[in-house]
Specification:
Blueprint: H1 3-10, E1 30-32, E2 35-38, E3 41-44, E4 48-50, E5 57-61, E6 64-67, E7 78-81, E8 85-88, E9 91-93, E10 98-101, E11 104-108, E12 114-116, E13 161-166, E14 173-179, E15 183-189, E16 197-202, H2 213-220, H3 223-229, E17 236-237, E18 248-253, E19 258-261, H4 268-286
Parallel strand pairs: 17-19
Antiparallel strand pairs: 1-2, 2-3, 4-5, 5-6, 7-8, 8-9, 10-11, 11-12, 13-14, 13-18, 14-15, 15-16, 18-19
Helix pairs in contact: 3-4
């Protein structure tokens, strides 16, 4: 297994000692005109490269070097057993089971491997304190705010986002809309002479097993995503494989800004957002309120 595959399979875990995070890891995070210097090497603007800790990813931008902030597991932190499931950070999971690791979400795949989203987690990753007296909603036994609540007034999308996959020989197409305060509308078009099926799910503010509002907010706030949405001309990242039955992820914001992500190498923050929204779509489609899709 390559080092890149190992990083993706074993992702991150809070239960271990955190390896050094990237902020301040190198003393030479200095932009030099159109270049950045990191760990003794120069990189051009737009370049992505491995961090010094071996499991995070950095990129060179006009503001210097920006890196993801995932805690790094040792190489033997997880094991693989396709017959019985997956073992990760001392626990065993069944095939298809999803679970949280720090601020990322992981799934035990059919091959026995653990696949995780790659969101850059802040140093103090984890749900913020919840005020049980918040008049907007209730707190469940796990300490999370339910879909009707708002911890500190921040558990709400700032605007509307739409996303879908375009291309490929598929039996139907799913389109999603995230709208304030915390709604996921999903439509499924089966290419018949009828209106698409649709369902609406209220997302929770913070949850240990599901993609939640705060997780999406973190992914949207990543410097790679912010930079993409700041461009006046819609950018395309990666390779467009639609001519050979591939697909492209497309995201649009209600102000007309957006971007497209193909296959191949793309900025780490964009790939993490795509993976997270794909997982959100899967979880919404499996929710009881969306059984009619």
């Amino acid at each position: 297994m390559s080092s890149r595959e190992r990083r993706r399979v074993y992702a991150i875990g809070r239960s271990i000692l955190l390896a050094p995070l990237l902020v301040g890891l190198g003393c030479d995070l200095v932009p030099l005109g159109n270049q950045c210097t990191y760990n003794g090497r120069r990189h051009d603007q737009g370049d992505t490269f491995p961090s010094a800790d071996g499991c995070n990813t950095c990129s060179c931008s006009g503001g210097g070097v920006a890196c993801t902030l995932r805690a790094c597991l040792p190489p033997d932190a997880g094991t693989i057993d396709a017959a019985t499931g997956c073992s990760f950070a001392g626990r065993t999971y069944t095939i298809g089971e999803t679970f949280r690791a720090d601020c990322n979400t992981c799934t035990c795949t059919a091959s026995g491997q653990v696949a995780c989203t790659l969101i850059g987690c802040p140093v103090d990753a984890g749900p913020p304190p919840v005020d049980a007296s918040d008049a907007g909603g209730d707190v469940d036994a796990g300490g999370d705010v339910d879909a009707g609540g708002d911890a500190g007034g921040t558990c709400a999308f700032d605007r509307t986002y739409r996303f879908h996959d375009d291309g490929g020989f598929v039996a139907y197409i799913d389109q999603s809309t995230l709208s304030p305060p915390r709604t996921h509308l999903m439509t499924r078009d089966h290419f018949r002479n009828s209106l698409p099926n649709q369902c609406t799910r209220a997302l929770v503010c913070s949850d240990s097993t599901l993609v939640d509002v705060r997780e999406i907010q973190q992914a949207l706030a990543h410097p790679d995503v912010v930079a993409a949405l700041a461009q006046t001309t819609r950018p395309f990242y990666g390779t467009d494989t639609r001519p050979v039955d591939g697909n492209v992820f497309m995201l649009d914001r209600d102000d007309g800004r957006g971007f497209s992500v193909g296959s191949g190498t793309v900025p780490a923050g964009l790939r993490a957002l795509v993976d997270l929204l794909h997982l959100l779509r899967t979880q919404t489609a499996a929710a009881p309120e969306c059984a009619g899709l």
